[in-house]
Hints:
alpha/beta; single chain; 8-stranded mixed β-sheet; 18% strand; 28% helix
Amino acid sequence: MLNPKAVELIKLYNVRSKHSNYQALPSCLTNVLSEGDLDIKSRSEWKRLEYILQEIKIDGKSIIDIGGNSGFFSFEFLDRGAKSVCLYEGNKEHADFAKRAAEYLSFKKLVIVNEYFDFDRPRELKFDICLLLNVLHHVGDDYGNQRLSIERARQTISDTVRKLVDLSDVMVFQLGFNWKGDPSLPLFEKGKKQEIIEFIEQAIVGSGWEIKSIGIYDKVKETYTTPNQQNLARFDELGEFLNRPIFVLESKKPSGRK
Length: 258
């Protein structure tokens, strides 16, 4: 029989909402919960995590996980030696799941903030790594000015990427093809990976960011590789998340860390 805390976690995870059931169960919770108890519709977290861990060192690093959902990446990073993680999540059930799980596991280095991150608010904090996966295309939807036009949304996404150079030394970034996740509102006219790559390349000019690496999922090798003529094609059978490039950006600005 499951203990009451495990039952609470199951209920919180399974609450229906726009972004519910997105993430796989982190390895630290597999002795507490069974995936059979959860209605998981994974967005290929393990594949994405594998690539991220190849590209950045997280041991002893401070991390901010913006839009961290139920906390898969936050828990996995702490399990792999991160010094601390601050998870921002606007959905109450997702944030509560992460909080209860952290309490159950005694993960005292995980701070959960149940808020949508305010990208316009100046902050004195500086992190080693920022994780910003599949958040910014929801501007004017889940967060921000609800009266934005799609053209203004594109500009806001670009501006946000630029200004985050002051938040962290490294940013792991992924962006959806469609505004608000709506296929009828494409942010990129042809829906191609190269369009996103060119958009980010243009956005960071003069910002202090440099692209360290770009990961493209290779359906033959079943792992992320560098962009090439074959893997830049769109493969609808892979699902939306594996079609989105993963960027690792490095700040070339002075750290400012005290």
